[in-house]
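Board notes, transcribed. Complex of a protein with magnesium ion.
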Amino acid sequence: MAAGGTAQSRLDKIVMLIAAEMGADVCSCYVMRAGEVLELFATIGLNLDAVHKTRLRVGEGLVGDIAAHARPVALANAPSHPNFAYRPETGEDPFDSFMGVPILRGGRVRGVLAIQHIARRAYDEQDVETLETIAMVVAELVATGELVDNRELQVANDLVLLPSRLDGVSLNRGIAMAMAVLHRPQLTIRQMVADDPELELRRLREAVDSMHSAIDRLLILSGETGGEHHEIIETYRMFATDRGWLSRIREAIRTGLTAEAAVQQVQNDNRARMASVTDSYIRERQLDLDDITNRLLQHLAGRQDKADGGTLPDAFVLVARNLGPAELLDYDSTRLRGLVLEEGAAYSHVAIVARALDIPVVGQCTGVLNRIDPLDFVIVDGDHGQVFVRPAEDITEAFLKSIEVGEERKREFAAARELESVTRDGVAVRLMLNAGLLIDLPHLHATGADGIGLYRTEIPFMVRHTYPDTAVQKETYAKVLDEADGKPVTFRTLDVGGDKTLPYFPDLGEENPALGWRAIRIGLDRPAMLRKQLRALLWAASGRDLRVMFPMVAEVSEFLRARRILDLELRRLDQDGVARPRDLKVGVMMEVPALLFQLDALLPHIDFMSVGSNDLLQYLFASDRGNPMLNNRYDLLSPAMLSVLRMLVRRCDEAGVQLSLCGEMASRPLDAMALLGCGFRTLSMSPGAFGEIKTMIRSVNVDVLQRFLDSLLGRPDRSLRQHLLAFARDHGVRL
Ligand code: PEP
Ligand code: MG
């Protein structure tokens, strides 16, 4: 195949032959360069100007995904895939279907070979095998070293000094580039036994006092921004004053140990007892105790407060096995750019604090401490859950470009904040924010949102150690209303159960948790819990406007029972002499299809309805929303889903019930465009989506769109995505 000529010209011929052989509109070959960057080396069908210019990091986009996992990918509908990374310079927008295979040699990925088709096409196993066979030929060509000098990719014996890429899990998005600082190792204890227990007890007392003052200072600092991390440090204070813990340390000192050795011994005992525990919540508490222990040891050694303040670089990425949230706050947050953890989970407290600090975090990065030396240059890619250590110039450049593009888009979208959310034909669309943490609230003003369309009350419950009492809940809700400053806030009552577990709630081991005891079902079976939450909401909103929404309602009678509990609490408010909310609106989430068939009975009782499209899709198609095997199998833009949504718009309009949609669908421009076509005029979304969605809204003529969508709904297609994309292209809608 394609013998003779330079390696580059042979590669050019190969891609041409593959495209002809497989009837593809595009065939492209990406070759691996140093620093794990895939460079477009040859193409037929994409823009030739992009050759040797387009570069993708391993893990980035579909091509990067193939290289990262050394496995083929075949997609009939590539643009809707979450890993799809659009590169405008390649001109690849019209291509729907994508199939790519790794170019493997000697067990290593040397590149990626991909084909694309304009028309939707399902590739079969034979197609994949054919491309894999051709990739073997290309692998030989790459191995000659004529395309990329083999020395560029040579792995030296001293692997540690080479650039490397480590896989982890994204715990917070964003990109950071800076020098690495390794979290200080635990102090070593030099002297184990002491002659004078009284002296040791006094040292312990002083160290505990000084630790308390330091924690109090942290509390004051964290209080300036408020939020959940403040609560977390509060629980630290609780640990630090735990009498059982301190008295066990004192006992150990009385047996003749130094204060340090006693602290360590108690910690070792705790660890031994916890060793067999697999419960993630308890393990997380163990981490808090480790943090407190280290902290106390620091104070005993006379070291306190900010970690190595004087010697830290001006900008740094912190690398640690794991970290307590208060430990993270010990570092100067103005210089801290990112965080990499060997362990760490999405709902760990340190991740929550890192989110509050708005720094990218990659967790579960196995072996990271062995691969990074202090002051190594690292890139934390929180968007893709990967870390680059001592990256090559190419990759640094590629990231700088990503950062630049991201900044540019941010500027563009920030500018859109001041613009009205109105379609080209003058239809106003209300844009609301989805929130769940106090730290989300500044987005309300930054985005210019009209209000909070969904406040997920369960999130503050999930980060706490114990069930928050009514007073604590009231305080949180009041803060939300204060921050909203008169803009409407829709509070959804506790939506736990299923995948959202509370640390202090029994694990029921349900076989089908998504279909199990969750949300309003728990609220109605444990009415005291629901009552307390409603009471807290009513107190918080005394004299102000309040919107309450019940999740996962499957029967009108469930809504009516919940409503009765709310009415009881309203009467109790009168008895307590507390003013009622100025205006109270009550609504439901539309998530369970059974409710679609009870609209006649339901609509007269509700003030508003919000469609939870994440759950509605999973129940409508009986397709688990968290199962990667079913990813993209059923489409939100299917005739079934869109017909349901359009029907809801009509019915709610007729009944005078406000309707909105608060699932992820509202955050994606094409899906949101379809919602406008269905008649939705209120969308609630994550803060990052505002710019794009508003840009889309301002470029669409909704009247034309609505008529177009009407004509499509009767089609037998599994999805109308391509038709809607074509509409957007033909009508200049900016997606
Ligand atoms: C939904 O189901 O679409 C929704 C907004 O609720 P959650 O994602 O919290 O289940
Ligand atoms: Mg839901």
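Residues 454, 456, 495, 591, 612-615, 662-663 surround phosphoenolpyruvate (ligand 1) (CB under 6 Å). Residues 155-160, 305-309 have pLDDT under 50 and may be disordered.
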